[in-house]
Design brief:
Elements: H1 9-16, E1 47-49, H2 54-69, H3 74-83, H4 98-114, H5 118-134, H6 143-148, H7 163-181, H8 185-202, H9 216-226, H10 230-241, H11 275-292, H12 295-311, H13 342-359, H14 363-378, E2 394-396, H15 407-415, H16 418-422, E3 423-425, E4 429-432, E5 438-442, E6 449-455, E7 462-469, E8 473-480, E9 489-492, E10 495-496, E11 507-514, E12 519-523, E13 528-533, E14 543-548, E15 551-556, E16 566-567, E17 574-578, E18 585-591, E19 597-602, E20 613-615, E21 618-620, E22 635-637
Parallel strand pairs: 4-8, 16-21
Antiparallel strand pairs: 1-5, 2-20, 3-4, 5-6, 6-7, 7-12, 8-11, 9-10, 9-12, 13-14, 13-22, 14-15, 14-21, 15-19, 15-20, 17-18, 18-19
Helix pairs in contact: 1-12, 2-4, 2-15, 3-5, 4-7, 4-15, 7-8, 7-9, 8-10, 9-10, 9-11, 10-11, 11-12, 11-13, 12-13, 13-14, 13-15
């Protein structure tokens, strides 16, 4: 372990209070990769999803969500045409709307990587041509600012603007379009815009500052990985270092914590403020730690991670409890009717993936899986055409809609990345993090390897992984054992592995010369678990939630004669897979205290039939807060 190796998460909050502020270092790398082999996810196009759960969903997003989303691109495309000097009819976009266009283009790029489509590619190329024409000579590109005659990176409105947020999403879309098609024009436009930002902030006449909506920080690091120009990493780091130092003129009375600007990074002991901005900011901090090995950034990323996952996250993986400022609440402030914006859940996946790559333990992937299968999937309807901006755990007759503020294209671009979340690799390791049926080709230059996965996950925990290799290849296969699984089993080529080769990182690790057709069978039993919340979460006192495998369940009024539920003290649960219901779901059946039959369905499937009441946490007779030994847990099963 290096000098800045992972310190016990319980110690981090206390340590944060005594960390002294380091000097601002904008361009000096410290420890690099700290001697570790570089870890990365595979390209989206290297993963073929062919199971009964994810494959139909990706088909819906490809065939329904993308065509539906074109209906909401009019403002942005008109704005680009106007910025090209063309006459247009109709309203133009606003300060943040252009990011929706780029998130949608990123969605299309992932779809093209998996399923080439000449017509879709042609439509995206037409937008790229408009982007080229709208770009200013110095590289600045934000059609809204150009059309409105506003000042780029306006220092009097920097925390209220979305210049950096828009640019960040443009960079990410350009990177993925290049990866999917090999076409370089979009990436060249994004690089030129990033170079303009560097000159504006860090050039000879640069003025310190940062966009009020974090996102550009992690996009710049992603650009640096693809195009190793150190100025992109330096600019990302500058945006982090300048926070909390009075570098941005406040535009309003909004608290500075809303922008992660109350105190400098090394004095930030919790993740505060606007939840979406905060998790994007934290992901950027983790990205910089990955690329530089900087101990201060690694410690900060871990403080932020613990702040959210141990004290401020819902059981579904949602984050951001308060409607005011769309913000995190205090520790354990998790009302069941909390705000829970979809974009915050999407950002949690970005943050979790980076924390996994930083620490290489299973716990961040446990959170990623929880958030993906519950909060993120709940955000989009089963037919892929309506979404939720908010995802509370207790809801009343609230329909899904087409509120294109920010969430719809964020949900689609996130869900198309399920294959990227499922795997990671170094030059000598393969990690299987999510259990998605299909195949993944690891892009090793010498002796490439493919994994073929067969499973009916998340409905059962039987997973078969078969190796396909032209020549034997020595590597370590790491299989995540989820936190919810108490009794995993594993067989290698038909022989039981006893004892289970489980590491402290939460993975079964098997290192050997792998040959073609070598087969691993992993068994993850999925009993129904009655979950309890930390006793400091007052909204859940005397209540339980149900979880089976990675799925959190909820009760919907239309299945349960209303929703005034009270479970018996020793309630038992039967499971039934219903292929005819909600696209195919496993339901839970039990009886209430007064003898009524009750049915629970996965949280993600709620509100897909008609408006009704919905509850995740329900009363159970005799349930009382359990105050015994809650170290490093926010939710746990009732033994």
């Amino acid at each position: 372990m290096t000098a800045c190796g992972h310190i016990s998460k319980v110690m981090l909050t206390g340590l944060a209070a005594i960390i002294t502020m380091s000097p601002v270092l904008l361009s000096a790398d410290r420890a690099g990769e700290s001697g570790k082999a570089k870890i990365m996810p595979p390209p989206v196009g290297n993963v073929q999803v062919e199971d009964a759960f994810w494959a139909p969903r990706l088909k819906v997003y490809r065939e329904k969500t993308i065509p539906h989303s074109w209906n909401y691109m009019g403002w942005e495309i008109r704005a680009l045409k106007a910025a090209n000097g063309l006459k247009v009819d109709g309203d133009l976009n606003n300060t943040w709307g252009e990011a929706n266009l780029y998130k949608f283009m990123e969605t299309c790029a992932y779809s093209l990587a998996m399923h080439p489509d000449e017509q879709l590619e042609k439509r995206i190329d037409e937008i790229i041509e408009l982007l080229s024409g709208a770009q200013q000579p110095d590289g600045y590109l934000h059609a809204y600012v150009t059309n409105a005659g506003k000042t780029p990176w306006d220092p009097a409105f920097l925390d209220g603007s979305h210049d950096g947020y828009v640019l960040g999403h443009m960079i990410e879309a350009a990177l993925e379009y290049d990866a999917a098609t090999g076409k370089k024009t979009f990436l060249a436009i994004a690089q030129k815009a990033a170079d303009q930002a560097y000159e504006h902030f860090l050039g000879p006449n640069g003025v310190p500052g940062f966009c009020g909506h974090a996102e550009l920080e992690m996009a710049l690091v992603e650009l640096y990985r693809a195009v190793p120009n150190k100025r992109y990493l330096d600019l990302s780091r500058a945006f982090v270092e300048w926070r909390g130092r009075g570098k941005v003129k406040p535009f309003s009375e909004t608290p500075r914590a809303y922008f992660q600007d109350e105190v400098p990074l090394r004095r930030q002991t919790a993740l505060d403020g606007h939840a979406v901005r905060a998790v994007f900011f934290a992901a950027g901090v983790a990205d910089i730690a990955l690329e530089t090995g900087d101990c201060d950034y690694r410690l900060a990323a871990n403080r932020f991670w613990d702040s959210v996952t141990l004290r401020r996250m819902y059981i579904t993986g949602s984050a951001g409890a308060r409607e005011e400022h769309e913000a995190f609440g205090e520790d354990y402030e998790l009302p069941n009717d909390g705000y829970c914006e979809s974009c915050a859940a999407c950002g949690m996946l970005d943050f979790a993936q980076r924390m996994f790559m930083l620490e290489r333990t299973s716990q961040p992937i446990d959170v990623l899986e929880r958030t993906l299968y519950n909060a993120v999937l709940h955000g989009i309807s089963l037919d892929g055409t309506t979404t939720y901006y908010r995802n509370p755990l207790s809801d009343r007759d609230r329909p899904r809609d087409n509120c294109w503020v920010c969430c719809p294209p964020n949900l689609s671009r996130t869900l198309f990345q399920v294959g990227r979340y499922a795997y990671a690799f170094t030059n000598e390791d393969i990690y299987v993090n999510l259990f998605v049926g299909g195949s993944c080709t690891i892009p090793w230059k010498k002796d490439p390897v493919s994994l073929h996965v067969s499973t009916d996950y998340p409905w059962n925990g039987d997973i078969e992984i078969r190796v396909a290799a032209e020549a034997p290849r020595q590597f370590a296969l790491h299989l995540r054992i989820p936190e919810w699984c108490r009794d995993a089993g594993i067989m290698l080529n038909g022989r039981q592995m006893t004892p289970l080769p489980l590491t402290d990182a939460g993975y079964v690790r098997i290192e050997r010369p792998w040959k073609n057709h070598d087969t691993v069978k992993l068994t993850l039993p999925m009993p129904v678990m009655k979950m309890q919340a930390h006793p400091a979460v007052q909204s859940c006192a005397g209540k339980i939630a149900l979880q089976r495998g990675p799925l959190v369940y909820g009760f919907e009024g239309i299945d349960n004669e209303g929703i005034d539920l009270h479970l018996a003290a020793n309630s038992r649960f039967d499971t039934e897979h219903r292929p005819d219901m909600l696209g195919g779901v496993t339901v839970l059946r039990t009886r209430s205290k007064d003898g009524r039959d009750l049915t629970a369905i996965p949280f993600y499937a709620l509100a897909n039939r008609q408006n009704s009441t919905q509850e995740v946490w329900v009363r159970q007779e005799g349930a009382r807060p359990d105050t015994r030994w809650w170290l490093a847990k926010l939710y746990r099963p009732i033994e």
